[in-house]
Amino acid sequence: xxxxxxxxxxxxxxxxxxxxxxxxxxxxxxxxxxxxxxxxxxxxxxxxxxxxxxxxxxxxxxxxxxxxxxxxxxxxxxxxxxxxxxxxxxxxxxxxxxxxxxxxxxxxxxxxxxxxxxxxxxxxxxxxxxxxxxxxxxxxxxxxxxxxxxxxxxxxxxxxxxxxxxxxxxxxxxxxxxxxxxxxxxxxxxxxxxxxxxxxxxxxxxxxxxxxxxxxxxxxxxxxxxxxxxxxxxxxxxxxxxxxxxxxxxxxxxxxxxxxxxxxxxxxxxxxxxxxxxxxxxxxxxxxxxxxxxxxxxxxxxxxxxxxxxxxxxxxxxxxxxxxxxxxxxxxxxxxxxxxxxxxxxxxxxxxxxxxxxxxxxxxxxxxxxxxxxxxxxxxxxxxx
Length: 385
Description:
With 385 residues, the chain is mostly helical. The protein contains 17 helices and no strands.
């Protein structure tokens, strides 16, 4: 073991930050690992160090990054959500997105019922997490998992399954419009929102680049805002314990995100990403490989089934409503992969006019994911736990 077993906080923290550094470097500089992404790599490297006995399986450092650390990261993500940008989506995109969100919630519930015997009594937590992540993206998976205290093995297996299924679904979303357009005589794609204003362009740029300069003022305001949200959500949750802290935190962050002061800050997305990667590295470090191998297949089927049910609903009903298949595909990616995936598929399909609408509904998914995910989890708990 490369540290003093009595708990060397500095050494363990060093290993975690180097793990994230290595994951980001591998994603950016190697073709093979680029496909995995920094999130999955952070988990795998952390898990490797822990299971080889190089770092401990328990530590107060892990407790911090799995508690206040990830909550701060989630808050930073939510501070980037400009709900006003939803106007850019237009009617068809918004309808398709809501269909997809319903499909993800239904899929998470159905797969929970089907696989509860194979996975165990905590299956209801995964129902909520997969519903959340397939409405808004990975940050919602982390938020709901943290709120429900999902075990590290379930969490790690869930992230691994999500990486694979999301990649498969991306290919499907690119392929379906190309196949259907051979016989589909629908009208050309039209965006109901018309011209894009400066606020919408700013939202797009936020996701396209993480190289915006961060000033000392930005850091000071973000730190104060995040800590204020964490403190106030804890106070409110203590007074109204029937509603989870993550709901109050999400609500407070979304309210503040609509203010001009927060919208003019730089760095929230970068810092949020970094804290989330540290959280994932920590989950890897506390995970036992043997347990993940044992539960992995069932959780993969869980993720796959959830996305397939989502797909049947969003494409089936969407086509019946005569929504253009390109719009449906981009809305589906906004659900499954988040705003950045929607942006990527809009570019791949040669529909740049749909990039901003895709980003808009992707941000809406981030805003809604925690609420719907926790609702699904609590409903499923009545049937499974």
